Amino acid sequence: MQIRELSIPDSFEITPKQFGDDRGVFLEWYRFDKLEEKVGHRLDLAQANTSVSKRGSVRGIHFADVPPSQAKYVTAVHGAVLDYIIDIRVGSPTYGQWDSVLLDDADRRAVYIAEGLGHCFVALTDNATVSYLVNSTFSPGREHGISPLDEEVGLVFPPEAGELLLSPKDTDAPTLAAAAAAGLLPTWDAARAYYATLNDRN
């Protein structure tokens, strides 16, 4: 597989090599050792999630308190989504910026999103099925959101998404500026210090 760091530090795009024949396709969509070489520590798996979304569905922007927050390894096993990684770490050189990766059942890419980063995606097809590997279990009291429609963040949703569908939780989420003012956002320094503790464990 090929792994490249995105424009947001501590996030990576993973492109697997696919082996096809008249029976279908085989690929390795996750390799802890290859990821560890890039990230500096392994992803200790604690939970696996799957979502199925209608075309136009937006999920996010979601993040969790650091530490421990929640690192994610995300892929689309059916259909297609555009996946967004948003740097919400106050003090980061790319604070407020984002990058995106097309996840679909053709190229079968995945993304790794480190603790403290914001995550969002929009479904480009009906029944878009996304699977996540995460390194900590869901903890409602530590989970937060930012509006995916925040003009300051400026996510660009492609026309193939059609009419956007958002949950009340996401439409009612604060803007990035409001979340920062409320002290909800992780900091660059805290996130980097936490990554260092994970690196030291290996």
TrEMBL record:
CDD domains, per database record: cupin_RmlC (cd00438)
Gene3D superfamilies: Jelly Rolls (2.60.120.10)
Name of the protein described by the UniProt record: dTDP-4-dehydrorhamnose 3,5-epimerase
SUPFAM superfamilies: RmlC-like cupins
Residues the UniProt record annotates as site (Participates in a stacking interaction with the thymidine ring of dTDP-4-oxo-6-deoxyglucose): F138
Active site: H62, Y132
InterPro entries for this protein: RmlC-like (IPR000888), RmlC-like_jellyroll (IPR014710), RmlC_Cupin_sf (IPR011051)
One Gene Ontology term from the biological process aspect of the record: polysaccharide biosynthetic process
Pfam families: dTDP_sugar_isom (PF00908)
Organism: Cryobacterium levicorallinum
Sample GO molecular function, one term: dTDP-4-dehydrorhamnose 3,5-epimerase activity
GO-annotated cellular components: cytosol
